[in-house]
Design brief:
31% helix; alpha+beta; Nitroreductase; globular
Length: 195
């Protein structure tokens, strides 16, 4: 994995894995071994889940044929950098259970994605989630039932050099910062900031 200096700084003490996780676009054309790839989904498996519904599912593409199917619904902008990605995972979530709607399906699938992304960092891999694709075409191409929501598409692989990207993307190939914690956390009611 290409190590880059991350300008990210935490305001409060946290494990460095959270600062090391970011979404690069440059990937090496290097296959991810099955045991390493599956370890990401093992981590996702242990995400919290309301009523233990575990609504998340992942449709992966790691063969040339399957990656070509995924490329058929990936948006034009993302195609410019996805050509070298060795593995994709489409995150979907079941919206109904035997007892009715699973209101937390997207929330739970997001937690599973978060676990997956952090395990990827631990394994020396890069991930890049995206929504720049044709959701309905993905549903059709991959035969996804209507009672599953399509949440996001994840590129998974080994990080490449930023020089391998089109010039317009090279300057964006750096970890982004985040707003201060106190701008995201309200106390007591909406908009009431913490002193």
């Amino acid at each position: 994995m290409v190590k880059t200096f991350s300008p990210r700084k935490a305001q409060y003490e946290i494990d460095p894995v959270y600062l090391e996780r970011w979404s690069p676009r440059s990937f090496l054309e290097k296959e991810v071994p099955e045991d390493v790839l599956m370890s990401l989904f093992e981590a996702a498996r242990w995400a919290p889940s309301a009523f233990n519904h575990q609504p998340w599912r992942f449709i992966i593409a790691r063969t040339k044929e399957d990656r070509e199917k995924f490329m058929s619904f990936i948006g034009e902008f993302n195609k410019t950098w996805c050509k070298t990605v060795p593995s994709f995972a489409l995150v979907i979530s079941k919206t109904e259970s035997d007892t009715g709607p699973i209101r937390s399906h997207a929330f739970d699938a997001g937690a599973a994605w978060g676990y997956l992304s952090l395990e990827a960092v631990r394994k020396g891999l890069a991930t890049h989630p995206m929504t720049g694709f044709d959701f309905e075409k993905a549903r059709e191409v991959l035969n996804i039932p209507e009672d599953y929501a399509i949440d996001a598409l994840i590129a998974i692989g080994y990080q490449g050099e930023k020089d391998a990207l089109p010039v317009a993307l090279q300057e964006r190939e750096t970890p982004s910062d985040r707003r201060p914690v106190k701008e995201s956390v309200f106390e007591g009611s909406f908009g009431k900031t913490i002193n």
